[in-house]
Amino acid sequence: MITFFQIWSRDKKKGYDVKNIVANLKWITDLNFSAGQLDFDLVYQDKTYLPALGSIVKFYWDHKKVFYGYVFKAKLTHEKVVSITAFDKSRYLKNQDSIVWKSGTIADRFNDVCKRAGISHKVVDKPKHKVAAEVCDGKSYFDMLKSAIKKTLKSTDHMYFIYANYSKLELHRAPRKKLKIIIGDKSGMTGFTYSKDIDNTANVVKIIQKNEKKSKSKSATAKSDDPKKTSFKSVTKKGSTVSRWGKLQITENKKNKANHAQMVKQAKNTLKQKNKANKSLTIDCIGNLDLVAGNSAEVKIKGYKTIKNCAILKATHNFGADYTCQLEMKVASWLASNSGE
After folding, report:
1. Is 60 within 8 Å of 27 (Cβ atoms)?
2. How far apart are CA 178 and CA 234, in angstroms?
3. How much of the chain, in percent, has pLDDT values that exceed 90?
């Protein structure tokens, strides 16, 4: 049940308790570089109140802190219903900037952009891996962090993410919590959908090195490559799934100044990331505040394999008399055979 729900002016001088008029309350957390979102209606009987944009929203469920954020959208209808969308502090990571990054860790970037955006923050899990220097021109802070997170994941297999812990943003390594919760036929699950595809899979990776002979002509101004002066060298790595899925090839340009051994390593790393079927699991279940993006839980469905530490990628909580969740989860080996499918 809602035990605390207030809306305050940005300067914190005036606040309103709206706990008893809240309806259609929905909370969304998402690992895909999206701010935590709270949608709700305020149902008035007499005089209505339309909160100012930027107002502070504080929400507790069952005496536990759930959401701290700011009003970004507010709509009033003739039926005296005010519909509001609020985002947590990570919404300000959509701010755009131009920064020349030195070589450093995700934590270095996270601390820097949070300071620039004026966000209270904390590094909980500090990565050791340093990503190369990079120029980010006119990009959002989310995109700048996404670039470093993807490069770190590719090099270390460690996934980092941003989590809004009520009023403070935190940098974590996934999973943030390995929940001792079992979700299944006999433990809170009300429905599920499982799917798999290889539409964005690659089992052959070719790293390309383009060689261009310089023209002796001073007037050579052609914008396109000259076939007579252009050649390619490459390194190719193949996965074991070619015989089952057919040849699914992608190419990448070699990293700057990479030698042959480094091109081979680049091909192997990309193949490791790409030579996988995309597997999707969506679960409907009874609500629990710990079921948020970035945590993991055990999934146990009759007739299928039990998945331990199944990562939650997105969680949608619908609060009310029947508190429910819909979870989008990362599937590793669930329903997998020895063939890797």
Report:
1. no
2. 42
3. 75
Structure tokens at 222: 């052609």
Q: Tokens for 162?
A: 């941003």
336 CA to centre of own chain: 24
Report pLDDT digits (tens) over 272-316. 889 999 888 999 999 999 999 999 999 998 877 788 889 999 999
What pTM was computed for the model? 0.85
Q: Output the DSSP codes for 223-262.
A: SSPPTTTEEEEEEEEE-TTHHHH---EEEEEPPTT--HHH
99, two tokens: 């920064």
**Cα 164 to chain centroid, rounded:** 13
The predicted-structure confidence for 88-129, as pLDDT tens digits, reads as follows 999 999 999 999 999 999 999 999 999 999 999 999 999 999
Question: CA distances (Å), 106 to each of 29, 154, 164, 193, 301, in order?
Answer: 21, 13, 17, 34, 37
268 membership: H or E segment, kind and range: helix 260-274
Written as six digits, the tokens of 266 are 């680049």
Distance CA 123, CA 226 (A): 50
Which ranges in 118-258 belong to alpha helices (H)?
A: 141-156, 242-245
CB atoms within 10 A of CB 285: 21
Max distance between CA atoms of the chain, in angstroms, equals 83
- Determine how many CB atoms are found less than 10 A away from the CB of residue 328: 19
